[in-house]
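Posted in: Protein Modeling Q&A

I'm a second-year student putting together a small comparison for a lab meeting, and my supervisor asked me to include a predicted structure for Acetyl-CoA C-acyltransferase. I've never done this before, so apologies if this is the wrong subforum. The sequence is pasted below exactly as I got it from our records. If anyone can share the structure token output, I'd also love a short note on what stands out.
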Amino acid sequence: MSQYHLNEALILGAVRTPFGRRGGALRDTRPDELLAAAIGGVLARTGLPGERVGDVLAGCVSQAGEQGANIARQAALLAGLPAEVPGVSMNRMCGSSQFAVHAAAQAVAAGDLDFAIGCGVESMSRVPMFLDLTLGKGDFRGFDGLHPDIAARYAIPHQVESAERVADAWRISRAEMDDYAMESHRRAEAARAAGLHAEILPLKGVDKEGAAITLAHDEGIRAAIDAERMRGMQPVFRRPGEGGVTAANASQMSDGASAVLVGSRAAAEALGIRPRARFRARVAVGSDPVMQLTGVIPAARRALELAGLSMRDLDWIELNEAFASVALCFVREFEPDMERFNPWGGAIAHGHPLGGTGAGLMAKMLAGLEHRDGRFGLQVMCIGHGMATATVVERL
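Accepted answer (user: helix_wrangler)
Welcome! Here is the predicted structure, written out as tokens:
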């Protein structure tokens, strides 16, 4: 047996919390507590003792306030891991926790660690995007507070405007975006009602009145969509008739966390832990910072090339629905089997807790592959300022 095979990085477990609406059921739960729940949950499900974890790598976008001071370390301690287990926080914007999983796998494959947790969190209720502690409030400095030289060279717009430009470039109509959004909710509700989300860890939360509840599903999913109301919503930035991106056909701001346990084949076998999947490709790319959201196309192409697969080989395609126009431009380019494309809906319905989404979509995709007895899955995410991450996994 080769050393490469011994060090092969395998996915041993993957979980996520329910994704709560901003200001919803998880509004009183601190982000370090959310992440600690995910870390503890993945260890409980796999049976790995906490002292065997070599590192905790956490994605988080707004690393300020309760998400500052290296939230990976804080959450690891809250989860009860020994003080000897280190933690590091990283920010690749929306792809943060997908990249954290990549980094965990790379450390294991290199032989540096036997086990590592790639995870992520975002509480958009408690830590607004681009929180500015000097002002004590959130603003959009992530887009309009760029260094003057970068602003002069690229004129990077807000992501919503980039989503509009994607729709213009691929000739995606407002009606198509709204129809796609409604289908995302329909699929998400069907999966929820059928109890298919084996990856979700129920969490304690509060209802509108503050009474204690248990949240066991994604809070943003709408069982019924008012199509007339959706079609009547005004564009976020552009004038009516000149734009099509609305709050209804874009991802929801959310609270949530996720965790993926990665281990070497030899270490897992020694402990009797059954692996769930192996990595066939891990990719991060840069793309046009003005269009900003189109990196999913070259990222997917590169990942499939590295994996030696085609779109037809995939049993599950999980693309983060930051905006309906991003999903639809991907569909235009690759023409995937739509029964295999976001089969359980996406972020338009279940929400997008930024740093918590990447590992969460990985957990969701693995649950979906197991439910469908599929083999190959592709996860791909667009990232602000022009980047994308992609992962191809093979279920074992």
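A couple of things worth pointing out for your meeting: The two ends are 18 Å apart (CA to CA). The mean pLDDT is 94.
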